[in-house]
Design a protein that fits this description.
The complex is a heterodimer.
Chain A: E1 5-9, H1 14-22, E2 26-29, H2 52-63, E3 68-72, H3 79-91, E4 96-99, H4 118-128, E5 146-150, E6 166-169, H5 171-177, H6 183-187, E7 195-200, H7 205-215, E8 219-224, H8 230-242
Parallel strand pairs in A: 1-2, 1-3, 3-4, 5-6, 5-7, 7-8
Helix pairs in contact in A: 4-5
Chain B: E1 2-6, E2 10-15, E3 24-27, E4 39-41, H1 55-66, E5 72-77, E6 82-88, E7 91-98, H2 105-115, H3 135-147, H4 152-170, E8 176-180, H5 187-192, E9 196-199, H6 204-217
Parallel strand pairs in B: 1-4, 5-8, 8-9
Antiparallel strand pairs in B: 1-2, 2-3, 5-6, 6-7
Classes of the chains: A alpha/beta, B alpha/beta.
């Protein structure tokens, strides 16, 4: 592998991450906001009304110097990623390497079940996609008082509104487990704790998030786009407070 | 202790330290530094207090005070947004806050009243609504209808009915709806809601703030 800097979209198979780690290649997670630039710069390539995560991918790719992009287009990511891969192929001369991650060997989900600021949990989990080794000292589990189901939001500021004893469910838990296509794991939630079911606006997962929120005895469906507005944050605050969740 | 609900168009106040406290309203355009309060809520509220409580929480607390039922839907229609809470078995079941597609609903209804010089107490209920999702987008339906020969009053009434039905659906299409906010005073809007409607007036959020202040004292 003659690469120095590689971008990843979604979670490529563990074997690829291992290979990149072995060659000390720097991995950039293009799903996360990495540069401060106007999202409007992506409009020549993607519609304005589109998944904010994939718009972020294009924005990052426009600004970073990369040698290749690995983009997962399997059931562990989404159909939109497949189409964005086509767009990226026409945008850049570097290799755009499509992968299908169907890994089913679980790494465990200790961070999702730990007592820690929810934002820090998400940072650890999203950072973890660049590494192929298990963390040496997993944090202990705590008794949950609230739940967050869904994908890592484009705007992490909503995570500050949750207590440290919030457990993570949904695709983010699959991320930590390094089994992004594990649909059974993704469907899991705890019916005994108030849970926010979150999806990015314009993402296919909004259907699942809303469906599970309706099934859950005490669930709130929420979606947000590039940034979470005041009403989205107020919904979370009020939901947790009126559900008797203590901070 | 002064409580304030700082809405987009109007701000409502209640001075609990006054003898026989009565709520009062001022136009939000007239707000100044002298209007700082102990507890505030509402779109404009953070600028006027050190103790801000978000509107959904306050709406729920107000509903708990004013509605003697375990199961209810309370919808608040403001100038800028709409929000609802749904209680089931005395417990929060669902909620919503629409500041985008519910944008400027109350504001637009008031604007149209002035522009066309209408009295909503006199407008008859139209036979059918416009299909509108928000105040801003709905305006063009009115202008199109007027250009096509529909009388101004009828076009506006159909718009108001469309907005009311949209708000009703947003609240989950309940059979009985408790209504809060300035639109409680708009008979055309209230009659346009296709269910039993119990208007609670525009001081529900002040009632919620009062409950929060009492809880804090305990």
């Amino acid at each position: 592998m003659n690469y120095n800097n590689v971008g990843i979209v979604g979670i490529p198979p563990l074997a690829i991450i291992q290979e990149l780690n072995r060659h000390n290649i720097t991995i950039h997670d293009l799903d996360t906001p990495m540069i401060k630039a106007d999202m409007e710069l992506t409009t020549p390539y993607l519609p304005r009304v589109y998944c904010a995560i994939l718009r972020t991918v294009v924005l990052n790719a426009l600004h970073l110097t990369l040698d290749a992009i690995y983009i997962d287009v399997g059931p562990g990511k989404c159909d939109c990623a497949l189409h964005v891969a086509t767009v990226l192929e026409d945008m850049f001369s570097m290799p755009i390497l499509k992968t299908i991650n169907d890994d089913m060997t679980g790494f465990g989900t200790p961070v999702s079940q730990s007592r820690m600021g929810l934002l820090q949990k998400f940072e650890r989990i999203t950072e973890g996609v660049k590494n192929a080794i298990k963390p040496s000292e997993p944090p202990p589990a705590c008794i949950p008082t609230a739940g967050f189901w869904g994908v890592p939001p484009r705007d992490f500021s909503i995570l500050d509104l949750f207590p440290d004893t919030t457990h993570i469910y949904g695709w983010t838990r699959c991320m930590e487990n390094k089994t992004p296509a594990d649909h059974e794991l993704e469907l899991g939630y705890d019916p005994d704790i108030p849970t926010v079911f979150y999806a990015q606006s314009f993402c296919a997962k909004t259907a699942l998030a809303r469906h599970l929120a309706l099934k859950h005895p005490h669930g709130l469906y929420l979606d947000s786009d590039v940034t979470a507005g005041g009403s989205a944050k107020a919904k979370i605050q009020a939901f947790l407070e009126l559900s008797g969740v203590n901070f | 202790m002064l409580l304030g609900d700082f809405g987009t168009s109007y701000s409502k106040f209640l001075d609990l330290s006054a003898a026989g406290p009565e709520p009062y309203i001022i136009s939000s355009k007239e707000l100044g530094t002298e209007h700082r309060v102990t507890i505030a809520t509402g779109h404009n509220g953070k600028r006027f207090t050190d103790w801000y409580v978000n509107e959904l929480t306050v709406l729920a607390r107000g509903g708990e005070q004013l509605i003697a039922e375990d199961d209810f839907v309370l919808l608040d229609c403001g100038s800028r947004d709409i929000k609802f809470i749904h209680y089931l078995n005395g417990r929060l079941n669902d909620m919503g806050w629409n500041s985008e597609c519910g944008a400027s609903m109350g504001f637009t209804i008031e604007l149209l009243q002035r522009y066309y010089d209408l009295d909503y107490h006199e407008l008859p209920l139209p036979t059918r609504p416009f299909s509108v999702t928000c105040g801003v987008l709905g305006m063009s339906r009115i202008f199109d209808a007027v250009v096509s020969g529909t009388p101004d009053a009828e076009a506006v009434a159909r718009f108001v009915m469309g907005i009311a039905i949209n708000a009703y659906r947003f609240a989950g299409s309940p059979t009985k709806l408790y209504l809060s906010g300035g639109l409680c005073d708009n008979p055309l809007f209230v009659k346009s809601l296709p269910c039993e409607v119990i208007p609670l007036g525009r001081f529900v959020l002040l009632k919620g703030l009062e409950a929060i202040s009492s809880q804090e004292k305990k």
